[in-house]
């Protein structure tokens, strides 16, 4: 636990450096939230009642999804760090530390995520609340379940990203794969469009894949689409995937570590 | 302290495929070439020694150090660092060693140096007292306080190396591995690094294994050196002996005031000439630099001069030649 705190503190120290970058990112998040807001408003105007929930709920879903993209963007996970360390050879310095590599990556990424949450996601949410009809959760219980499922969503995304990062160790270049991966994750996670809007087969596929743990489940709990036992079932779904993905990642790392080649030197 | 016996490391290098989805296809690739980077190396390092580990590029120095740090698992052979087999107990080994890789930093790029040290303090579970005491030592000997609030990406190479040394030493390791710690660093900064390494060796009895391309590092720091080539030890002994036996040759580089035709000087050989600059190779035992300088200076005014130590590649060559001669005599 102390390690998580150390990495979080560390992340906050890199803050002031990228002030320009920060404003730029905040601005682009706002643009995305604004677009989502308008798209749903127009679609609801044309086909009211076609999407299963009220316009307010849908706008909240979309705007929240955009705000959380600042922390859950699949292109900014531990796989990027691992790939970069492998390319530069600096992975040696990570492997030398008296730390479990998987735990090290988790702590490091947790710290960065918490940093991005407080500096980017939170301001975006406040802007969304003030200007874009972002609703608050229906009650305390709902809010608490949302936070739990968000944390579990973080674990699922981290585990998937970690596996992709391990691929970088094996192939040394994951650029072409990253591109496809990011698309798949964002689509099946239900970040922009909730899964129940998906047509038959794709909807069924999205329902069993782990990706929906990242956006769809927390967002649906937030807007109250999933509540009570349904919400708990969804959280159970996340837990099952975490129980599959974490051992898988650790097992894969164990095997890769033993045949790890360190580039350069 | 360090014991290495018949250590061998082979790399299986995958023949990479190019093109679309090459990353995925490489996963299933089965074509290999085998490269033996370290080939049956044996040596011992005693506590408190500073040993120079040198050899040409690709000789296998970094690979050996990575095995000693527990980053790589040997293909065969035995190694032990202060009683621990690094690849079997990587974490325990990590706590008793420190390492600096010249071309790679373990510090966070965007974060002030001091914050990286604080993170490492937590990772290595260094106590507050130990942390404070070491920080004082680093401020004293490395002048860490002059740049510890600066992000690493804004540091000069020499400062970055000093910061990395501090990072490698704050958990009080008994053994320090330095892989080209002076590479790319200017002369003044190099001298600071050397003084520091000598100091921590003397004061805190840290055992040091050091690779370098700079013969001055060896001259100033090491009492003993190991020379390796093609993954094998070709020399293990004192620095003086190698200097007397093989490394007697020096190069005097003079820059003259104006361009002159090539000329010869007794007991020295003109090996290179570039306009106003001339390179004279001489043997330390036959001629002294001051004699040569007087002779040359008597004829043409000298603007600048340096005496160069032999290159490592040249040392290796003369070792092979020396061995060849010896076998001929026998
Ligand atoms: N990860 C690796 N995969 C394949 N070959 C490697 C790897 N690392 C080093 N080598 C090869 O092993 C040899 C020794 O490398 P290295 O130990 O880095 O040499 P040095 O540090 O003495 O310059 C070189 O021929 C190098 O190309
Ligand atoms: Mg090397």
From TrEMBL, chain A:
TM annotation in the entry: 20-43, 114-132, 144-172, 193-211, 231-253
Highest taxon of source: Bacteria
UniProt entry tagged with the keyword Plastid: no
InterPro entries given in the database record: ABC-2_transporter-like
Keywords: Membrane, Transmembrane, Transmembrane helix
Keyword Transmembrane applies: yes
Protein name as annotated: ABC transporter permease
Annotated source species: Cohnella pontilimi
TrEMBL record, chain B:
Stored SUPFAM superfamilies: P-loop containing nucleoside triphosphate hydrolases
GO MF terms held by the record: ATP binding; ATP hydrolysis activity
Taxonomic path: Bacteria, Bacillati, Bacillota, Bacilli, Bacillales
Source organism: Cohnella pontilimi
PANTHER family, A to Z: ABC TRANSPORTER ATP-BINDING PROTEIN, ABC-TRANSPORT PROTEIN, ATP-BINDING COMPONENT
Protein name: ATP-binding cassette domain-containing protein
Domain ABC transporter, residue spans: 22-255
Transmembrane regions: none
Keywords: ATP-binding, Nucleotide-binding, Transport
InterPro entries according to UniProt: AAA+_ATPase, ABC_transporter-like_ATP-bd, ABC_transporter-like_CS, ABC_transporter_ATP-binding, P-loop_NTPase
């Amino acid at each position: 636990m102390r390690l998580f705190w150390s990495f979080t503190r560390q992340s906050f120290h890199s803050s002031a450096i990228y002030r320009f970058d920060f404003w730029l990112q905040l601005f682009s998040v706002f643009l995305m939230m604004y677009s989502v807001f308008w798209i749903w408003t127009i679609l609801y105007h044309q086909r009211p009642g076609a999407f299963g929930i009220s316009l307010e709920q849908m706008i909240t879903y979309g705007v929240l999804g955009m705000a959380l993209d600042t922390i859950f963007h699949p292109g900014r996970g531990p796989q990027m760090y691992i790939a970069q360390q492998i390319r530069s050879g600096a992975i040696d310095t990570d492997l030398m530390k008296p730390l479990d590599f998987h735990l090290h990556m988790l702590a490091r990424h947790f710290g960065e995520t918490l940093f991005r949450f407080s500096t980017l996601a939170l301001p975006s949410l406040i802007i969304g609340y003030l200007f874009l009809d972002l609703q608050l959760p229906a009650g305390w219980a709902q809010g608490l379940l949302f936070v739990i499922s968000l944390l579990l969503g973080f674990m699922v995304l981290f585990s998937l990203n970690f596996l992709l990062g391990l691929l970088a160790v094996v192939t040394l270049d994951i650029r072409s794969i990253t591109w496809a991966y990011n698309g798949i994750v964002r689509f099946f996670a239900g970040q922009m469009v909730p899964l129940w809007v998906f047509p038959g087969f794709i909807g069924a596929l999205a329902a069993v894949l782990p990706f929906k743990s990242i956006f769809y489940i927390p967002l649906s709990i937030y807007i109250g689409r999933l509540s009570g036992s349904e919400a708990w079932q969804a959280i159970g779904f996340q837990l099952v995937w975490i129980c599959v993905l974490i051992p898988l990642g650790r097992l894969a790392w164990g095997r890769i570590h033993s045949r790890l080649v360190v580039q350069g030197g | 302290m360090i014991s290495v016996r018949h250590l061998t490391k082979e790399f299986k290098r995958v023949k990479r495929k190019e093109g679309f989805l090459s990353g995925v296809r490489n996963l299933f690739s089965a074509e290999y070439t085998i490269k033996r980077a370290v080939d049956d190396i044996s040596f011992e390092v005693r506590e408190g020694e500073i040993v120079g580990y040198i050899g040409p590029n690709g000789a296998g120095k970094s690979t050996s150090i990575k095995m000693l740090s527990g980053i790589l698992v040997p293909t065969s052979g035995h190694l032990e660092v202060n009683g621990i087999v690094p690849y079997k107990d990587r974490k325990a080994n990590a706590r008793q060693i420190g390492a600096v890789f010249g071309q790679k930093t373990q510090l966070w790029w965007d974060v002030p140096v001091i914050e990286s040290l604080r993170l490492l303090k937590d990772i290595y579970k260094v106590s507050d007292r130990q942390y404070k005491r070491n920080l004082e030592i680093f401020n004293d000997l490395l002048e860490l306080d002059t740049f510890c609030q600066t992000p690493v990406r804004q540091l000069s190479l020499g400062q970055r190396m000093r910061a990395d040394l501090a990072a490698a030493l704050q958990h009080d390791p008994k053994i320090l591995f330095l892989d080209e710690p002076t590479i790319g660093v200017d002369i003044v900064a190099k001298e600071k690094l050397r003084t520091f390494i000598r100091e921590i060796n003397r004061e805190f009895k840290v055992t040091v294994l050091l690779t370098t391309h700079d013969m001055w590092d060896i001259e100033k720091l090491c009492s003993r050196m190991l020379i390796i080539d093609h993954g094998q030890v070709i020399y293990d002994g004192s620095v003086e002996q190698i200097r007397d036996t093989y490394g007697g040759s020096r190069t005097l580089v003079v820059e003259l005031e104006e361009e002159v035709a090539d000329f010869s000087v007794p007991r020295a050989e003109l090996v290179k000439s570039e306009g106003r600059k001339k390179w004279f190779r001489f043997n330390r035992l036959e001629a002294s630099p001051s004699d040569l300088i007087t002779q040359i200076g008597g004829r043409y005014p000298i603007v600048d001069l340096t005496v160069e130590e032999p290159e490592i590649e040249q040392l290796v060559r003369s070792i092979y030649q020396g061995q060849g001669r010896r076998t001929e005599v026998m």
